[in-house]
Amino acid sequence: MDNYLVSGKEAIDLMVLNLNRAAELISTFKQVAVDRSTFELRKFDLRDYINEVVKSLEPRLGKTDHSVTITGDDDLSMVNYPGAFSQIVTNLIMNSLIHGFENIEEGHIKIHVERLDSSFLFVYEDDGVGISEEHLDQVFKPFIQLRKTKVLQVLVCTSYITLLFKF
To answer: Which contacts of 86-90 are long-range, i.e. CB under 8 A and separated by 24 or more positions?
Structure first.
């Protein structure tokens, strides 16, 4: 009887843990989805927000052995457009998954953020295959065609950075 009660308690604890994870994921999806659709100016913490965006991509990332590591300053509060930043991070990660990690079992994405005097530094890198020499001069053109069915969307990221973050 004691074993049954212990097993039952472990099962309930596991269910509560999974329900809490699901609730957190749903909350993250909702906030990122609202930010992507409204493009409103609001205060947010950059590093925390990047974590939320990566969590929102978990259904896609979770099907792979690729990893995302986020490092940098903890307190990077700013007033800006989180929806635009969400699109930038999402496009960069998706480009890594689709293009950079093609035929790679276990790729690594590193995102580093830190405060500079009146701005911030955002560094994105992956250990994928890279962009071929023949395509480097086309990277900032709209929707360059790498292969028949694959399009690299770096211009989308560049446009958001230039227009919304005014760098």
So the answer is: 86/32, 86/35, 86/36, 86/49, 86/53, 86/56, 87/36, 87/156, 87/157, 87/160, 88/157, 88/160, 88/161, 89/50, 89/53, 89/54, 89/124, 90/53, 90/56, 90/57
